Amino acid sequence: MAIDTPFGRLRAVLFDVDGTLYRALPLRAAIAAELLLLPFVRGPGAARRTWRVLRAYRGVHEELRALEAPRGDLADHHLRTAARRCGVEETVAERCVAAWMHERPLRYLRLCRRRGAVRLLRTLVERGVEVGVLSDYPAARKVAALGLGDLGGRVLCARDVEIGALKPAPRGFLAACAGWGVAAGEVLYVGDRADVDGVGAARAGMPAVVLGRAPAANGRAPDGVHYVRDLVALHRLLLSERSPG
Predict the structure, then answer these.
(1) CB–CB of 210/167 below 8 Å?
(2) Which of 6, 57, 168, 218 has the fewest CB atoms within 10 Å distance of its CB?
(3) Residue 156: CB atoms within 10 Å
(4) Domains of the chain by start residue, with CATH
């Protein structure tokens, strides 16, 4: 089923996760507070090693965005590069990343969930519109921790073998379209970064919404990218009583 919207006639809505379905700032503050306490819990040496690994891992992540077709497994390459850069064994880096980037954030996600997320996704499903997520990081457990797992939908990760490229590469966006059997122009992508989410969607031929204020004129988003204040405002735009379906 499709709905008529200001962004065109849509059959599916694809969401980013981090910073889009939840507010990133309070989550980062909570994790930062735990990291500051780490020297008292694990000792100064272990704390410094953890900080180095996380800093290197995030740095490599941004660098990998420029690779359209990385060789080999993207997740392995990411971890191996970060471990080498900060001088630790890969197993040490893997444990650190798993704990601080995949496990610990789960406990805070429900508290950081964006206002209107549940209502928006539920209404889309009720109207017969396909929903899904595309994230640069593994997202299934995050979606469940946010309390959105029961709404179904596709859960795609840029690190999946069949994608293997981080946003703004268009592969993940096009993989979602192929899975649904719909054209890119019939899918709306919702994210929080114009330079990543907006550019990637535009390259795939997909309209996009970026949450937040539009940048100054010298930072104009690509054609087809629109700015919406929050998910509540997006709900009003997509699913007003005037929308069919």
Answers:
(1) no
(2) 218
(3) 22
(4) 3-23+113-238 (3.40.50.1000), 25-108 (no CATH)
Residues of the chain with pLDDT under 50: 218, 242-245
Strand ordering across the sheet containing 208-211: 154-157, 130-135, 12-15, 187-191, 208-211, 225-228
- E strands, the chain, where? 3-5, 8-10, 12-15, 130-135, 154-157, 187-191, 208-211, 225-228
Question: What is the predicted pLDDT for the residue at 134?
Answer: 97
pLDDT at residue 150, as a whole number = 84
| Residues 245 and 128: beta-carbon distance below 8 Å | yes
pLDDT of residue 222: 67
The CA-CA-CA angle for residues 143, 29, 40, to 5°, reads 115
The pLDDT score that the predictor gives to residue 190 is 98
pTM of the model: 0.91
